[in-house]
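Need residues for this backbone.
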């Protein structure tokens, strides 16, 4: 059963699939050329209304073009997804299909703490809205993160970064003075 959930970004909609697509991490496809290892996403770009595809653990988020309404998009996407899964094709191939744990670089204690806070408190909340947040770097009190899925280009992403994530980190890791999206 496939059902949809609204996201804070009015141009993005989350499709809950009831099956695991990506056991670890997430995958963001801003265009068809980036979807070579994602047959499920590559075909979606054939639809004129699809501008971006984001894949999380058990969901797929689509960002649509402004000239289309969700009422016309949802049935087409649901029909496509049902047919895709019925065909038995692998949704992800290549490096995504074999997401083996990459050995972690040597990280200092503060970096580990920041990543743990993001993983434990922030990522699950962001995933509920059809997106993801990825640690990029931390230097001189500035944490840089990458927003993906429905969070990419979302009108409320600045509020989320400053009002939510930055405040949480200020309490749990006071060394973080600012959070910025890259």
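Answer:
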């Amino acid at each position: 059963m496939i059902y949809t959930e609204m996201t804070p970004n009015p141009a993005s909609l989350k499709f809950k699939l009831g099956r695991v697509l990506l056991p670890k991490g997430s995958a963001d496809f801003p265009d068809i050329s980036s979807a070579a290892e994602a047959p499920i996403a590559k075909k979606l770009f054939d639809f004129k209304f699809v501008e971006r595809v984001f894949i999380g653990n058990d969901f797929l988020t689509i960002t649509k073009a402004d000239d289309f309404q969700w009422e016309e998009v949802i049935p087409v996407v649901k029909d496509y997804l049902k047919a895709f899964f019925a065909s038995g094709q692998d949704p992800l191939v290549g490096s995504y299909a074999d997401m083996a744990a990459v050995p972690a670089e040597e990280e200092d204690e503060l970096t580990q703490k920041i990543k743990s806070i993001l993983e434990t408190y922030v990522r699950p909340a962001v995933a509920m809205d059809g997106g993801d947040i990825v640690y990029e770097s931390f230097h001189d009190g500035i944490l840089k993160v990458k927003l993906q899925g429905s969070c990419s280009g979302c009108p409320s992403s600045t509020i989320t970064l400053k009002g939510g994530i930055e405040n949480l980190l200020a309490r749990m890791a006071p060394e973080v003075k600012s959070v910025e999206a890259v």
